[in-house]
Each structure stands twice: as structure tokens, then as C-alpha cells.
Amino acid sequence: MCRIEVANHKSIEGSASDSHGYTNPIRLLLSPLIENDLFNQDWRSRGRAHKYWTAFGVFATSNLVLLLFASAITAFVSPAAGGSGIPEVRAYLNGVDAPDIFSLRTLAVKIIGTITAVSSSLHVGKAGPMVHTGACVAALFGLGGSRKYRLTCKWLRFFKNDRDRRDLVTIGASAGVAAAFRAPVGGVLFALESLASWWRSALIWRSFLTTAVVAVVLRFFIDICNSGHCGLFGKGGLIMYDVTSDTMTYHLADLPPVILLGVIGGVLGCFYNFLMSKVLQMRGPIHKLLLAAVVSIITSVCLFGLPWLAACRPCPSMMNGDCPSSNRFKRFQCAPNHYNDLASLFFNTNDDAIRNLYTTGTNDIYHPLTMVIFFISSYILGILSYGVVSPFGLFVPIILTGATYGRLVAVLLGSHSNLDHGLVAILGSASFLGGTLRMTVSVCVIIVELTNNLLLLPLVMLVLLISKTVADSFNHNIYDIILQLKGLPYLEGHAEPYMRQLTAGDVVTGPLRIFNGVEKVGNIVHILKTTGHHAFPVIDEPPFSPSPILYGLILRAHLLVVLKKKDFLPTCTRSGEKALKKFVADDFDKRGSGKQDSINDIDFTPEEMEMFIDMHPFSNTSPYTVVETMSLAKALMLFREVGLRHLLVVPKSSNREPVVGILTRHDFMPEHILGLHPYLMSSRWKRLRWRPSTLSKYLRSFVLWLAHRT
């Protein structure tokens, strides 16, 4: 949210630095104008109305410039840096290596774009981009650095393989969560629950060690910044929203409101995901920069105009009548010793706004109308903001929106509940997180680490489970929706029921492209140019074997390396293992996120096209295979659990061709399977669908039961 306080004439003429030493860029922009005597005379002559329009113009222009800059570098320099990056990290750890998601260019745009986008007053957060940033740094280590920018280290080559790189990305993502929320244990659990598709026991202590180092480094910089010269960094210590209180209690009679919070959070969360999917679908036809400009202007108008709807309130007693000293309650246009509760939410950092809502013993701080206005605006602005092509996350905005509606529910319950409004705000955040992200264990631990209150643990667990269950009855979590919209083939951890009715041979399609053990260069070049396959079976036929047999599997990347070397054979004979002596291990290392090798970049003479290549030394002689009669569900489990890219299907009888086909990730996707066998549509997993009459019936019964209990 916004960082500027537009109060009365005295507050604008104040220092450009706040009480924490944070220098506000917008105030610095206004200060030369204010210090000019001629400007002051003109200011006073034109009256107060001109002052407000000038302040709004500077405010809206600054937001617009910052957001357009973030959107421009994302759209034209590195589109892979857009959004939070968590869906892309999930896809990579599931086996989808999308281009440029971990490149050095993406990392630079992610960092710069996140800073400018969050500074543009958009209703977004920085937690998601920090997860992607940590994964990018780890992936660059796994690639040995960047050859393109001459940033390489020889000792990093030991990690240049798929397994170690995947582990490093997992560890880097957990470190990003730990840095964003100062929650080391929550970072490990977040990577385990939401990101990683494969988990090894060694990853637990490695991730835990990394997040512990993150916590120590954060503590070090927080101690250095205690003098206040680092802006808002480090405020609140490692506990961001400390709500420890000896008077915070709850009883069995408080469970109905908690259950109600969970149900409402689930409904709001699934509707939030539905609307966000529509906004993301609309992003294509509209010019990206134009959309960013429209959203920025709408946000500026809402942030600057809505606080005028709130009335001034006396400063709370805990501030001893001195609101400005806390820097959390804003005067806006109020008299001294008064504050504007809506401006205190809009014109504050997200952290301070959440801290205000979480504070216990503040049941009378906010007017109910303020909670309604801020909740509606926060809900809508969060959806619109995520449609902009810029690097930012939605974790913190969801926490803030959930805390607002939690406070609103507490106000509406009134005397029917003894729960503190700050406690209900925390439960509201948990329920909204459960309804949108559908995570339970990691979110629960992160909230406990954020608030430093173990007393909340049972209630947070209950709210998360209820909201997730309710929301799962309607649609998918927001990350799965984004994965579907981006077309990334993410494999779920379970098999659909119809897969048990099919065999592996039932989904094999297309003509199978194979190579002989010794193949002509012209045939290899033709197949590589006319197909996009990444692997090909190698078949030995007479005279190299008595009958056709499967020798192994060769990758397109390895074929390109051999073709570039141009170590060809003049006749159709085996070269033996001596062919490998002309290559080194680095030649076959997996390329990074930069430009990949292409068959179109290699030129061949007519004489070379008639020569031969011995495939045997470069083939994987022990590829994973399944019999064509194996259940498709079992084949999916093998494919996902082992982390395969290609699964060969072999015939059940020996009097047929040695290979029936190759199963890839695409062959296990529901769209492909149901396209081949549409009669299986009725066997899909069905989400619980509520009819309007049934829903209204149960809702009416629940309301009557709740009224009777209270």
C-alpha cells in the first residue's frame, strides 16, 4: 500500500524522513516545491483545494511511473519474471523446465521489478518474488554460474546435473520464504507442502540448515539497522507481528464463530480464485502497458479518495493521545490528537497495516464502515493488481484482506463472541489463506512464527482445514489455476479413476521415430528437423544383432553435440568406445536457461550427409520401460515418482517391433487421455457441486442453529 501521509498543511511541510529514518521518495519530490517561497505564496492564494489536487497529481504520477517501469522491463526484457514465480518453481520441481525461468536476466528483472512494483502503491506483496529469487540464485549455482555473462566457477560443475539442481532450487525457494516472513521452519514446510514433487530425507536437514543461516543473517542486519538508517527494514525484529498477550483466551463456546470464519474464508477464497482467473485470461487482448496504467490510476484514486469517507476519531488511549508518535495512525485531515482509521490502513505499509489489525486490546480502533470499505477495496484491488504483468506476489495482500474481514466479522458478532478482535483478524487471515492457497501445515507454522503466539495454534489449524475443505469443493488453488492458464503440464500426485481402466498402450499416439544403432547422418538431420521430440529409441538390427532389439535411448541434446563435432564414419560400421575419447563430460552437460543448440545452426556438406554415426557409445542402455498392458495409473506413478521425462512402452509378445511407443508428460495429461477416449468423461473425479437450493437449505439451518446457541 501507500507510504505517503497527506495530512494537513503542517504535515506536508514536515521532514521528508519519518520517525524510523525512512526517506519517502514522494515527500522528497514535493520538498523543493514546498521550500520555495514563491510556491508557498501561490499555494496559499489558490487555497486548500489546489493543494489536494497537486498532492494527488504527484502521488498518482509517481505510482504510474513506477508501475509502468516495472511492467515495461518485465514485458520486453524478461516475461518469465512476471507474477510471483511460485507456479513456475512448482512446475520446474514437478519436471517442467520452462525456458528462462531461472536465467540471470530473469533474476535481475525480478529484483528490480519487485522493488518498483511494490513501491507503486499497488495492492501486492514481495513474498512470492522472494521465493522465485531464491530459486533463481540456487539454479545459477546448479548451472555453475552463467557462461553468457562470464560468471562461472569450476567447483560448481559438481552440481551440474538434474537431481542436484532440483535439490538446490528446492532449498533456494525455502530460503526465500524464510527471508520473506522471517519464518525458517515455515520456509522448510512451505517447500515440502507446496513446491516439491519429490522429497528426500537429505533435503530436510539441508533446507533447515539454509533457513537457519537466513535467520542468522537477518538477525545480523536487523541489529545493524537498529539505528534507523535502513528505512523500514528490521522493524519488529524477527517476529513481524508480535501479538503475545496474557489476556488472550478462548473457550469452547467460541468455536461456532471460528467455524463460521473458516466457512466464509473458504467461500471468499474460491470466489477470489475464480475472479483472478478471469482477470488473468483478459490480460492477452489488452496491451500490457495500457492495462498497467489503468490499474495504477484506479488504485491511486481509491487510495487517495476513499479515506475522505471516514470520520476522524480521537487517538486511542494506548497512544496517550499522541497518534503521530507511533507512525501507525494517520491524521490525514483530522485535528490534532485525532486520526483517520481508513487512512491509517491505506497510507501505511502492508506490514504496519497488518500489525494494526492484529494488535490485541484494540476492539474500538476501527469503525465498522471502515472495515467494510477497506475489505471491498482490498479484495478488488488485489484481483486487479495481479492481472498486471509485473513481478509481485499475493501472499501478503491475502493476509491483509483476510485480517480485515476477520475484524469485520468480530465487529458484526459483537457481544455474541468474547474473542479479541485482533485474534479474530489473525484467524481471518488464516481462513483466507486456506481458501485461496489451500495450504495447511506450512501456513499454520508461518502464522505462528509471525505472531509468536502458540495459543493460536489449535484455532488456526481448525480454520485452515475448514476453509480449505470448503474451497476445494468449488475450484482449484490459485497456483494450479495459474499453471493451467500458462499451459504448464503439471502432474498431480494421484491418478484419476479412469486411468485404471486404461493400459499404457492405449494412450500411445503418433508415428514412432527410431534410429538404428549405426545411422546415416542425413536421416538423423531429417528427423531432428521434422520433429520436436527430445529422445529417440535406438534399435539394433542385423548385422549388429540376430533380430531387432531395443538397445537404448538417445537424447536430442546429445545428438546435437555429436553432430557439431562431425566425427562421422565413412561406412556403416561400429566405432566402439574409442568415439567417446574425443569428447569430455562437459560437452554433454545440461545447458542453462540461455540459447539452446539447434539443428538449424549446423551446416552439412552433401558428402557428410551420406556418412554414418555410431549411436551405441552415446545411448542410455538402461532406460525405464513398461509393458504395453501395464495399468496407466501404475505407469503414471512410476513416471512421477522417479521423475522421468521418457518412458518406453515395449510389446508383451516377442514377435513384434521391440518398441511400441514412448510416454511423455503430455501423454498423462487428462486433456490428451480424454481426447482419445471421450467415453471416460463420466469417470473423472468430480468435485462436490452444491445446488443453490441445497446450499441455501444448509446455510439457513446453520444460521438458525447459531442464533439459537447465542
Automatic annotation (TrEMBL):
Alphabetized, the UniProt keywords read: CBS domain, Chloride, Ion transport, Membrane, Repeat, Transmembrane, Transmembrane helix, Transport
Instruction: Give the highest taxon in the source lineage.
Output: Eukaryota
Q: Which GO terms describe its molecular function?
A: chloride channel activity
Q: Which organism is it from?
A: Ananas comosus (Pineapple)
Q: How does it sit in the membrane?
A: Multi-pass membrane protein
* Entry protein name: Chloride channel protein
Q: Which PROSITE patterns match?
A: CBS
Question: CBS domain: from which residue to which, for each copy?
Answer: 615-679
What family does the Swiss-Prot or TrEMBL record give for this protein? Belongs to the chloride channel (TC 2.A.49) family.
Transmembrane intervals: 52-77, 168-191, 203-222, 258-277, 289-310, 365-386, 392-413, 425-448, 454-471
Gene3D superfamilies named among the record's database cross-references: CBS-domain, Clc chloride channel
| Pfam families, per the entry | CBS, Voltage_CLC
Keyword match Protease: no
Q: List cellular component terms (GO).
A: plant-type vacuole membrane
What InterPro entries would the database entry show?
Answer: CBS_dom (IPR000644), CBS_dom_sf (IPR046342), Cl-channel/antiporter (IPR051280), Cl-channel_core (IPR014743), ClC (IPR001807)
Q: Where does it primarily localize?
A: membrane
Q: Which SMART domains match?
A: CBS
Spell out the subcellular localization from the entry: Membrane
